[in-house]
Specification:
alpha+beta, four-stranded antiparallel β-sheet, three-stranded antiparallel β-sheet, 191 residues, rod-shaped, single chain, 29% helix
Length: 191
């Protein structure tokens, strides 16, 4: 009787000591969904980044080539029409330059690379490349827009594509570039 006023010790009731099967399935489903979504997002981010880098490389090469060709046309004393092919793809542009070491200056495509030859009668794959190995030259066309006795003007058309290389992500980046340049030497105007 003495023990009556003491709280009785009761056996604990069985409470949750782990996860039920339904809780485990829901938990795994939420985690799986989160991981799949994060993986897809990361893959899309990587693909977008690779494509942006390819477009940047194509644009950089196109701007460099057009500015170099246009500058050389403006500084040329004449066009070597016998060494040039106009309106064909790929064209060859041969410029008569005033400076002996760079006469003639020839722009040509060998394989998928645009090259410049300075002071040599021909353009070969040994000449310096104007485009990088990350870019393929698909079209290089020079069109004669000259007016007899007035101007010596030429249009340069260039189509560049990104080279796929060994990247696991297929990249298709293409850009067309065009410019027009006029020979400024002996054009009848005071320069």
């Amino acid at each position: 009787r003495y023990y009556r006023h003491l709280p009785q010790m009761t056996r604990p009731t069985r409470q949750s000591e782990g996860f039920t099967l339904i809780e485990l399935v829901v938990y795994l489903g939420v985690i799986s969904f989160t991981l799949v979504t994060a993986t897809m997002y990361a893959f899309e981010f990587a693909a977008t980044r690779v494509k942006a880098a390819a477009l940047q490389e194509v644009n950089r090469n196109g701007r460099l080539v057009l500015s170099r060709v246009a500058l050389d046309i403006r500084e040329a004393s004449d066009i070597n029409t016998g060494g040039s092919t106009f309106g064909a793809d790929p064209s060859v542009l041969s410029l008569a330059m005033a400076s002996a070491p760079s006469n003639p200056t020839i722009f040509c495509v060998t394989g998928t690379t645009l090259r410049v030859s300075l002071g040599d009668a021909s353009c070969t794959s040994a000449d310096p490349a104007l485009t990088t190995s990350k870019v393929l030259v698909s079209e290089f066309t020079v069109t004669d827009l000259s007016v007899a006795g007035k101007t010596k003007t030429y249009r340069i058309h260039l189509l560049l594509n990104a080279a796929s290389g060994s990247a696991p992500i297929e990249v298709q980046a293409s850009q067309t570039f065009e410019t027009t340049a006029t020979i400024m030497k002996d054009d009848g105007f005071s320069n």
